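Practice record 12: protein with pyridoxal-5'-phosphate.
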Amino acid sequence: MTDTEKDLFLNAGIDTLAVRAGQTRSAEGEHSEPIYTTSSYVFDSAEAAAARFSGDDPGNVYSRYTNPTVRMFEERIAALEGGEMAVATSSGMAAILSTCMALLQAGDHVVCSRSVFGTTTALFNRYMLKFGVTTTFVNPVDLEEWRSAIGANTRMLFLETPSNPLCDVVDLRALAAISRASNCLLVVDNCFCTPALQKPLQLGADIVVHSATKYLDGQGRCVGGVVVGPEKLLQDVLVFLRTAGPSMSPFNAWVFLKGLETLRLRMDAHCANSMAIANWLQQQPQIEKVFYAGLPQHPGHQVAAQQQRGFGAVMSFQVKGGKAEAFRFINATRLLSLTANLGDSKSTIVHPGTTTHGRLSVEEKAQAGITDNLIRVAVGLEDVADIQADLARGIAAL
Ligand SMILES: *Cc1c(COP(=O)(O)O)cnc(C)c1O
């Protein structure tokens, strides 16, 4: 971005940023963002090459660490999250790994929400531990648990809000105050809300990570991730990327750029559909309980209403009965896709207890509230009436 463009976007709204932030044009004057499929770059002279390699000239050297299409995606998501800098990665997990590798070292301690993406738990338990970083898992909504888990060597607090699949909502401002008082870095996986619904950096978080695979693309086409935050931290993430190489491909960056252009419109439509479905589900006598922060009786409703622009599109509910009833419900649906994925224009349905959370022990499931009769739905962009009719097929099969 040139300085004039920075000025233009200083007070721009989210849709303007989503459509235009970060775009650079080549001498060809192309209107739409091109895909730069090149591994390396040529230099005008030996002196120019030396300047690029030394960092005196910030231009491109090699696409493992910079590529113009990837750069456009990074600048656009940084603008949307309100962060100084972003680094794109090959997946959401690579974004979390890169953050940890750049900012943690042996002997450090992490406090992590118990309700995070299962693979994130495995990353901390299996690999971070192997390199001397220990993790304590806490109930995310209990701020006292966070506070008492923090020790002298705690460097990072990590969470998702709202959580999957029960929509637990963590008060980010309150947790950021706890984090700051202990000199920790607060890292928020903002995958479920996206910057269209929640801006953790404005609420006091230090770093935002994303699985771009979900709502940033929004159409289930590519795997990717991104880390956003202040330049002094993100430079270290970029050095890790440059050294270890979990980089985003320019093609995927282009898909995500195009996905971002409709982000706010899609998220608002996802939220509207979800609210209608949650309200309807709640009125069905065969449904025991609905977990969605948009419902006033959900324990996270107040905080979600304060820190989110909308309540998101992932919800879960308990059917009357147990696993057999939940399976009958799922098997009777015909429109919804039976898949563990979410963040897609297509609605999805899954039984968390035997899929996404299937590796938890009986006690861990009980602690996390993953009951046998629980079903998760990620509400897509189909007509509400058709989603509802499909869920009614499930209810009829109970
Ligand atoms: C999917 C997901 C991830 C992992 O992202 P990938 O792109 O699949 O590597 C991380 N966090 C959350 C909340 C997710 O839903």
